[in-house]
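Slide 14.
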Amino acid sequence: MRGMSDQSARWTRATVYPDMWADPDDDPRNNENSPDGELATLQDFLANYRITLRMKCEDLDAEQLARRSVPPSTMSLLGLVRHLAEVERDWRNWITDGEPLPKLYGVKDADFHGAVADQAVVDAARADLEREQAATDAALAAHPDLGERVGKDGIAIRELMVHRIEEYARHCGQADLLRECVDGRVGQ
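Slide 15: predicted structure.
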């Protein structure tokens, strides 16, 4: 474990704006065309947060991705990827009236506890997140009316979409700090 004096210097790849993660021309989140409509806007924000999380994890090895923040926290970038895969699966439980899908990683906090420095765990977590995102997106595509109420609790699709954005936004903020702790790279 590194001590406080062993921390990497803060840095960014951006040359245009030093507080950015990447230069505007290199940033895959830059979309010059604002989406039309509420649903498209919500989907655009969600897509950009998903890209941000991937960007915060890029160019890191399994040890760096699994590196925990500060004791006693179990939070790591890999843990966030696993957690969001679990959360995507759980959102599908909100949509259905049927039996809930089983947990991907087991008991509470297993998503973080099982985030170990093993490339197979990293590869599985990335695949899990992509699969769960696609499945939740497909389930929600069947409900284009944002006011429609679904599931046992009658949650509005709009509320579910906003909650998803909030969840990714919060975890992307944590990913900012986790990445800075790993190698000093900063930027939104």
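Speaker note: The two ends are 26 Å apart (CA to CA).
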